[in-house]
Amino acid sequence: MLVLHYTGMRTGAEAIARLRDPAAKVSSHYVVEEDGAVFRLVPEARRAFHAGISHWRGHSGLNARSIGIEIVNPGHEWGYRDFPALQMAAVCDLCLDILARHPIPARNVVAHSDVAPDRKEDPGELFDWEGLARNGVGVWPGRDPAPADADAVLPLLREIGYRDDLPLPVLVTAFQRHWLPGRADGIADAPTRARLAAVAAACRA
């Protein structure tokens, strides 16, 4: 798996210092600064402690099976903002390099908020998942079909990869952050249900 995060700290230097501090007990394989600079902190063959309590497609404890990238952004707590073009280009290149070395399916390129929807919201609703997918990183659906029925929402979320033992609005919010840019209200309305059906279909492809 490949798990993308934002740092959620005031500066990249603060984030790197924390990720290198043994007392913090957090780490990631890479950090990507806003100017596109890439720092490798942990070799890909070694476990980094970036996902925490996490679940995706039937697997838990994802630190043991994933590569983590921290993307410098102050996050929702310190002034969440757009990710600069240079930074996104560097993230894309880094992801493509990683995917060339590891057999990671597109459906397993995910957000921290996907794998820990009750705890995390990064990299958030401003992150350009669609742009990454256009360049071969992750899943982005084609045209939305008719909306799924309301009773199909949880089964489709489960099929995509989400855990199913959390309140539905929590899961829908995480889904929206990834696949409905700008939305994060947890409401499974018709546009959300249509996009849900489209993403599930894309993950099957």
TrEMBL record:
The lineage of its organism: Bacteria, Pseudomonadati, Pseudomonadota, Alphaproteobacteria, Acetobacterales. Gene3D superfamilies: Peptidoglycan recognition protein-like, PGBD-like superfamily/PGBD. Keywords: Cell wall biogenesis/degradation, Hydrolase. Pfam families: Amidase_2. Its EC number is 3.5.1.28. Belongs to the N-acetylmuramoyl-L-alanine amidase 2 family. This is N-acetylmuramoyl-L-alanine amidase. PANTHER family: N-ACETYLMURAMOYL-L-ALANINE AMIDASE AMID. Residues 1-124 form the N-acetylmuramoyl-L-alanine amidase domain. It catalyses: Hydrolyzes the link between N-acetylmuramoyl residues and L-amino acid residues in certain cell-wall glycopeptides. It comes from the Bacteria. Coiled coil: none annotated. SMART domains: Ami_2 (SM00644). It is an enzyme of class 3 (hydrolase).
